[in-house]
Design brief:
The chain is mainly α. It has 2 helices and 2 strands; from the N terminus they run ββαα. The protein has one domain (22-88). A two-stranded antiparallel sheet has the order 1-2. α1 packs antiparallel against α2. 10% of the residues are buried.
Length: 90
């Protein structure tokens, strides 16, 4: 695994946002947790509302904005999983 891994979802050859795959596991976990919980909290707040008055374009844009930190959190969890599997390998 390369030391610096680009986050997914960026379609170009120059990657400005990278994950340090050698960062301490607790730091990677805390960063993933923060992003995933932020998305979860916003989605839970939406789910609790009786009515949502918005058009499809706004909801589409909102979903795209929430996908970014969720994808980042998943990328971080992927790095954590790889590191843990490497530690358990003989």
């Amino acid at each position: 695994m390369n030391r610096y891994m680009p986050i997914t979802g960026v379609d170009n050859d120059f990657h400005a946002l990278l994950i340090d795959t050698e960062a301490p596991l607790d730091v990677l976990h805390e960063t993933a947790d923060y992003r995933i919980r932020a998305v979860t909290q916003l989605l839970e707040n939406l789910a609790m509302r009786e009515e949502i008055h918005s058009d499809a374009v706004v909801l589409h844009d909102f979903a795209r904005v929430l996908a970014i930190p969720l994808r980042d959190g998943c990328d971080l969890m992927d790095v954590i999983g790889r590191r843990l599997r490497a530690q358990m390998a003989p």
